[in-house]
Amino acid sequence: MTSLLLRLFGEEAANSLRAPFNLGNKQTLQTLFTNSNIEDVTIITKVGTARFASINDWMFTDIKGWVLADMIDDDQYALLLQEAEKVLRPFLTPNGRVAFDSPAHIVTTVKHEFI
Fold it and tell me: 109-114 long-range contacts, Cβ below 8 Å, gap at least 24?
């Protein structure tokens, strides 16, 4: 998706969608906590599945319903839909729905009481 945005609309649009997922590197995330003097940190990765009824629904959610709503105008959105139908076809299931892995890191720690 970000590659498609980069190709059609440039780095700013692609980075806007990357931003919510910029803690994808587990070691980078661990370093943030270590540098903040937070101890006893456990990070586990769970892989879920993102699902959408169609490529159009996926595009609407990511573009019109989220971070790019004010950046992509109606003509650009129409172009994106046209290109997405071709480029994102590998994410279609046999029933025409969209499914892809969506991993998340879950961070836990314990707050110690200091006296």
Answer: 109/33, 109/38, 109/39, 109/40, 109/41, 109/42, 110/40, 112/39, 112/40
Using only C-alpha atoms, the chain has a radius of gyration, in whole angstroms, of 18
Round the average pLDDT of the chain to a whole number and report it: 91
Q: What are the residues facing 46 on neighbouring strands?
A: 104
> How far is residue 110's CA from residue 39's CA, in Å, rounded to a whole number?
8
Tell me which residue of 16, 75, 65 sits closest to 5, measured CA to CA. Answer: 16
Q: What is the pLDDT of residue 115?
A: 64
Q: Are 12 and 71 a contacting pair, CB within 8 Å?
A: yes
Residue type, 98: V
- Is the Cβ–Cβ distance between 72 and 4 less than 8 Å? no
Task: Kindly state the helix (H) or strand (E) to which residue 64 belongs, with its residue range.
Answer: none
pTM, whole model, 2 decimals?
A: 0.77
- Measured CA to CA, the distance from residue 103 to residue 26 in angstroms comes to 11
The domain locations on the chain are 2-108
